[in-house]
Structure formats: structure tokens, C-alpha cells
Amino acid sequence: MKPIYRLLTFCWLLAVVACSDRDVQPVEETNLVLRHKGANMPIWVRGNAQSNKIILFVHGGPGDCAMCYRYYLKGLETETMVAYWDQRVAGSSTGKVPEQTLRYAQFGEDMVYVVKLLKQQYPNAQIYLLAHSFGVELAWQFLTTDNYQQMVAGVIAINGMYSYFNWLFNVREWALREAGRQNNAEAEQYLLAYPVTPENTATIDWLGIYRWMYKLGGNPVSLYSDKKFVLDYAFASPNTALAQFTHGKAYSYYGDVESRLFEKGPLLKQVRVPVGLFWGGKDGVVPVEVGRATRQVLTNAPVTTVDFSESWHEPFVTETDKFNRAVLAFVR
């Protein structure tokens, strides 16, 4: 046998051994669609099909996307399946969606059907919610309604609120501290003129407070400064920037009315499934004080807290490896 044929035969044998059944991890690639009340909501399931664990990513926004963040969350797929769900009027979802359905109750109902659809497809799998920002509000809505929490094995809440008043109060406090630290007299004057109380949350100029928080460095990280993310978003994601950034106007009622009424504090004592509170310590959008307050009202749930001291609002962006390790440790 000629040397070249010996080499090829040897390489082929190595490949066969490397690809033996005991070493292969079946990869799940299923595309589902939930059609409900005018919305066609895609759900992409990716990852380790043998794990019998599904992490349902509940994206933020409102009006953001799920699959575009796979760039950061793909590391979870080695040990679990990850379900990337685009909410109604978000990401690549389609349909003629009545604006009056953009309410917490409807998003919570949507999540019930998403979980049921996943359970139908994977009857032996445990499902964990991985909720970020606005998605945390939806997770609390789901977990505090009827007995829906029995449908999931746990939830990880990443930099999200449970109470509009608690959130805006802490955003203003964060901005005030930063204004003093940065000697920004204009910001300090404005923020002192707008104290946040339980009585004025329905009318206060929240956007003015929010803008000062951003100007003072509340979340300086931009996803689009990462060229690899941009390329992945453009060429390896079913979402499009055009779809994502045309949704904002649909949420005027959410920003003006619905979110201002959001208060789940008294109800979080009903939550009994394991909860992970993952927080970017530098965040001004949803300051770490909100996470600490959330811990206090979760009186009957086993709670794990993970601090990401080098992160702002999206710790999976700035501390990706640490974040994915913490998620996998939680679901194990």
C-alpha cells in the first residue's frame, strides 16, 4: 500500500472513532411557530437534544429579538436546548396584531402557549425561563398568574424590574449619585426637581429621568460596536434590523399607561420555583438595588444571586463566558 493511501486510511479510521455513537451529541434544530390572537411568533430550538432541559429565552425590549442574541447565548447549547422566542410585535414575528393585545396579561398568556408548545414537542424536558429586562416583567406576570409556575423548573431574571415605582425610584437615585460624582450640576438640578413617589408614578416625566441616567453612563455598551456581532446579526440571524426597529411606536400605551401600573411585589411571595437573580453591577437602566429589593420580596423561593461586577444592563454581552457558566450551573 502506498504511503498516501495508508495516510488516508488512517485518517478515515480516526474520523470513524471520533464520530462513534457514544461521543456524538445530537443537535436539535427545530423551528416552531405560535399563532395566537393575530400574532405569528417564531420559536427556534437549538442545542443538545439529549439534555432534556430547555432554556426559554424571554427577550427584552419591548420589541427586541431573540435569535439575534444567540451570538452570546450559543455557549448554553452544548449542555441544554435553548428556545429563542420572538414575542408578538417583536423581532421576526408577523401578523396583524391589535394594539390592545400589547398588555402584560396577553404576553403572559402567550408565554403559557409557548411553554405548552415546547412541552408538546419535548414531553420529557424541563423548561427554565431566561428572562432579560422587559422579559423579566413578562416572567413575573407568568409566574404569578394561576398555577403557571408549575409548568417550569425555574427562572433566571437578568436586570429586570418587578415594580415600576421601585424601578424608577432607583433609576433616579442611581442618576443622582452619578451626577454628584461627575459634578454635573445640570443633571443634579433636574433630578432634584423630580422626586419619585408612589403617588406620582402615573404622571412623572420618567423619560427625562431615564435620559439623564443614560447621559451619565447608565449603559455605555453598544452591541453594534462589536463587528462580529453585527456580521452575525446581518448574515446568521433570521431577525432583521428593519423588523426590530419599526416596532417601537406600537408600544406607546405600554410606556404611557401599562408599565406605570406594573406592581408584582406583593405577589412574588407566591413564587416557589428556584429563582436566579443575575445582575450587571454597573447598570443604570435597572440598577442593582432593584435586584436586592427583588430578593427581599421572594420570601418563599430558593434564590441564587450572581453579580457581574464588570457589566451594565446586559451581562451576557460583557461577561459572556461567566454568564453562560452561571446559567448552566443553575439549570444543572
Automatic annotation (TrEMBL):
<protein>
    <submittedName>
        <fullName>Putative aminopeptidase ybaC</fullName>
    </submittedName>
</protein>
<dbReference type="Pfam" id="PF12146">
    <property type="entry name" value="Hydrolase_4"/>
</dbReference>
<dbReference type="GO" id="GO:0006508">
    <property type="term" value="P:proteolysis"/>
</dbReference>
<keyword id="KW-0378">Hydrolase</keyword>
<keyword id="KW-0645">Protease</keyword>
<dbReference type="InterPro" id="IPR022742">
    <property type="entry name" value="Hydrolase_4"/>
</dbReference>
<dbReference type="GO" id="GO:0004177">
    <property type="term" value="F:aminopeptidase activity"/>
</dbReference>
<keyword id="KW-0031">Aminopeptidase</keyword>
<feature type="domain" description="Serine aminopeptidase S33">
    <location>
        <begin position="51"/>
        <end position="319"/>
    </location>
</feature>
<dbReference type="InterPro" id="IPR029058">
    <property type="entry name" value="AB_hydrolase_fold"/>
</dbReference>
<dbReference type="InterPro" id="IPR002410">
    <property type="entry name" value="Peptidase_S33"/>
</dbReference>
